[in-house]
Amino acid sequence: MACAVSILGKSCTGSVINNHKNCYREYAITARVVAPKKTNLPELSIKGVPHNDLSVREIVQRQLLTRDDHFVLRKPEFHPEFLDEAYDRCRDICAEYAKTFYLGTRLMTEERQKAIWAIYDELVDGPNAIHMSDAVLDRWEERLHDLFHGRPFDMLDAALTHTVQKFPLDIKPFRDMIEGMRMDIKKSRYENFQELYLYCYYVAGTVGLMSVPVMGIAPESSSDAPNIYNSALSLGIGNQLTNILRDVGEE
């Protein structure tokens, strides 16, 4: 499946991250997010899942805003040295828990590396997996709301707050990811493929939605934004399904 992006001069095939939650491919790009070529956004497609229920179209519309137009209630000022340390910690977590994926991020521009590290730190299940509970996820969601509104709880949250200020990221994919974690602690079997597909959207398709504003859409792209978001969703969901099949073989 091809994605319409501009690759940096050094050729690469990307890097895949494989763990129980996230599975997606990242590329080094030089493009910035631009407005779609068509003014009317068609409904994106998720197999067997009503898209209106997931509000994916609305997510895409909000994330197509430019950085200057992206609405942030409060923009705190961070000392450069504080931010450097925050991103360094996010980098270290990514390098420890997602070694192959981390190598892929090294092919990105510095600005995008930092953003992806901050996003990964928010999603990583490595250091937190053994502590998952409804109470923990409730608190996680509260902190997510605060950091998106310019009130980070700690240094790692500050890195994502800064990333949200730089890129038009929408909060809903992050909330949906937390919903996927709730499914993990409540349910281990799915009755049909539609249920499984929905789970894959929550824990992996959302990562595709988060990544597009950071990775960007090439101005010269022959595909419009909805098609590119569809590709990002399909890539995340497909990789998660592959990850599940791999685990079935191991278990």
Give the topology, please.
Layout: E1 15-16, E2 25-26, H1 51-54, H2 56-63, H3 80-97, H4 99-105, H5 110-123, H6 134-148, H7 155-166, H8 172-186, H9 193-215, H10 225-250
Antiparallel strand pairs: 1-2
Helix pairs in contact: 3-4, 3-5, 3-7, 5-7, 5-9, 6-7, 6-8, 8-9, 9-10
Written overview of the protein:
It is a single chain. This protein has 10 helices and 2 strands, in the order ββαααααααααα. The chain is an all-alpha fold and 251 residues long. The protein has a two-stranded antiparallel ribbon with strand order 1-2. The two termini are 29 Å apart.
How many distinct helices?
A: 10
How much of the sequence lies in strands comes to: under 5%
Overall pLDDT metric? 77
Helix-strand string: EEHHHHHHHHHH
Low-pLDDT sequence parts:
1-42
Strand order of the biggest β-sheet: 1-2
Rg over CA atoms: 17 Å
Structural class category: mainly alpha
Portion of residues within helices: 55-70%
Number of strands: 2
The end-to-end distance, rounded to whole angstroms, is 29 Å
Largest sheet: 2 strands, antiparallel
Give the overall shape, derived from the CA principal axes: globular
